[in-house]
Amino acid sequence: MFTDAVKWPAIAADEIRKHVAGATQLVPTLAARAGETIEARKLLNSNVTLVRAAGLFKTIQPSRCGGYEYSLHTHIDVVEEVARGCGSTGWVVGLYQAHSWLMGLFAQSAQDDVYGSNPDATLAAVIAPRGKARETEGGYILSGFWPFCSGCHHSNWLILGEIIVDEDGEPTESGVMLIPTREAAIQDDWCVGGLAGTGSNSVVINNVFVPRHRFLSITNAINGQTPGAHLHESTLYFSAPVPTLALFIATPALGMARRALEHFKERLPGRTVSYTFNEQQLEMPTTHMEIAEAATKLDAARTLLHALVNEFELHASKREVLPFERRAKARMDIAYAVRLCLESAQTLYLASGGSGLAENSPIHQAQKDLHAVNMHGLLCLKTNLEMYGRVLLGLPANSPAI
Q: CATH number of 123-220: 3.30.70.3340, 2.30.110.10, 2.40.110.10, 1.10.260.40?
């Protein structure tokens, strides 16, 4: 566990260790249910109950709203453990934590709407501005179609991205709006190979009224101007929004790659390699190099993400907006970290022989999940390479999400 760069208020180290240990204790059960979770195409109710009982949904949730308000370092440690047991469950836990962080940026009245009567509330989200809203008295009328809404089935609230348009249909602002999940229609359209158990179904909203206080401007948030960040004891909610949200969705990759590494090691003793003179794979120099490369890439990815948290916290503690070039670099570094995790698992997958193709192989599932993580728009390596390269060369940015 890494030491926080900024002292966290009233949180003892042993309290944090106990919290992470609670995630570790779930690993065997989550692993045993991983296949069933994939078949269900969404989180099992029993897994949600386990995670909630361990308090893991509250890792980042504001303390004023009944959460623990731990640091992003603790988020990384917790989600890595959950994803080590089940990649799909780790993905949803990571995103629920991300959205509880985002909720901390909303106005106090919006935070109270969500957590006032239910401090155990969970939020699913699609941040991309796929909906349209028009102003009306006291708020907005929202409609749209949002695919990839991970964890929507077990959420109480949705945070959905949209463009606000005027009477002529011209855009005036972009942001996210908060609505109860019951006001959305969840489509039965999540049939995929990777992250198959995440329940990342599409949601549809038709002419739903959203009170004005449940809107958060993304432009203002990127510029460090939010109505809710100052309400909290820690500086967590002053972290740069885009790279922070990217980090949240990257952290499950650590647990997925670690699961592949651990399973590869477990299956080595006594295993012979086909089309050799019964060579023991455990004794082969190629095996030593493969596992060393896989372990080193995983360690590098983890170190990179924790180093970014230190930088985020340093600027947040000073109430400084992370400089533009550093935000671009952070997005690039996060995409690179998830690619390292994929390469780590891929090395072991290719070294697993034909038996590694089995659907119930943890290595096979890890590489499928990691491919899915790497295909997320915010984590796509080539997109981030182009974005960061343009910034380094002093060219106009090709993305508003920096």
A: 2.40.110.10
- Between CA 151 and CA 55 the distance in angstroms is 17
**Alpha carbon 124 to its chain's center:** 11
Distance CA 195, CA 90 (A): 10
CATH no. of 241-392: 1.20.140.10
Q: Which fold has domain 13-117?
A: Butyryl-Coa Dehydrogenase, subunit A; domain 1 (1.10.540)
- What is d(CA 276, CA 135) in angstroms, rounded to the nearest whole number? 71
DSSP H helix total and E strand total for the chain: 14, 7
Are the C-beta atoms of residues 138 and 130 closer than 8 Å to each other?
no
DSSP H helices in 154-284 = 218-222, 241-250, 252-267
Domain with CATH 2.40.110.10 in the chain: 123-220
If you search the block for the tokens 């455990």, which residue do you land on?
282
- Looking up tokens 């922070």 gives 244
pLDDT digits (tens, 9 = 90+) for 219-248: 999 999 999 999 998 999 999 999 999 999
- 134-187 confidence digits (pLDDT tens): 999 999 999 999 999 999 999 999 999 999 999 888 999 999 999 999 999 999
DSSP three-state, residue 87 = helix
